[in-house]
Amino acid sequence: MRKVCVVIFAAIIFFTGFIFFTPEPEGFPILEYHRVTNNPEFVDTVYNVPPDEFSAQLDYLQQNGYTTITLQDFMRVVHGKGNLPDKPIILTFDDGYADNYSEMLPILESHGMTAVVYVVSNFLDFPGYMTLEQARDLQRRGIEVGSHTANHLTLTELNQEKLEEEIGVSKTFLEWKDFQTIYSFSYPNGKYNHDMTKILEREKYLTAVTGEPGLNTTKTNPYLLKRIHIRKPHFGITEFKLRLLKAKIFAKISALTTGEN
Ligand SMILES: [Zn+2]
Hints:
The chain is an alpha/beta fold. It has one domain: Alpha-Beta Barrel (TIM Barrel). Helices cover about 45% and strands about 10% of the residues. It contains eight helices and eight strands, in the order H-E-H-E-H-E-H-E-H-E-H-E-H-E-E-H. It has helices at about 1-20, 50-65, 70-80, 100-110, 130-140, 160-175, 195-200, 235-260, and strands at about 30-35, 65-70, 90-95, 115-120, 145, 185, 205-210, 230. The strands form two sheets. Strands 1, 2, 3, 4, 5 and 8 form a six-stranded parallel sheet that branches. A two-stranded parallel ribbon has the order 6-7. The longest helix is centred in the last third of the chain and has 23 residues, at about 235-260. The chain is globular, with a radius of gyration of 19 Å. The chain binds zinc ion. Zinc ion binds near residues 94, 95, 148, 152 and 188. Zinc ion binds next to strand 3.
């Protein structure tokens, strides 16, 4: 028993030291959201952050000096045009749910913030999802719209032809439907492999986000950007702070093991 206590104590000391006494990792977080709703059907699912919690999270980011940018803003900097703000952060939303327009957008705009919303092109205009017109309106309001494929299939399970279709058709369809150029992509269910980055490049996407935790710098592979999943919180803003800390810890571990973020 005493041995176990000593080991636990040593682990706590080591972990605390690792968090607080190793250099701050480089890079900025990308947050991954899905729904923002009080709809009783979804309010308690892990993929939902209720509106009042979401608003409190944006308050926290604002009070702590974060500036929201889009992935297009980030890529301009990667290509040598301008600089990143002091504490950049990117808010992303997967799937294109209707509440992103009705609930999330007003909260975002009342904070003067921006975001990236990844839509599944064949789901638009279907019940529960945004309409094409709502998604186009997001772009007009300065929100970046990206592709989350045509049908939300798990890409690692598709043959080459179907894979290229899912990645390519969604972008072509949206641009054909009068959207501004689609540059950003999100892998459904976080499932990806390195071959997909070549297809994304060929289809003229500039970025893709994964579900791997960590931070991003201008040196991070733009088709393998890291994100922190913001689940439905049970401990309010404390849990949100811990999720931001998780991104830092993974970036520190990554820096130690690979020499980069
Ligand atoms: Zn999804």
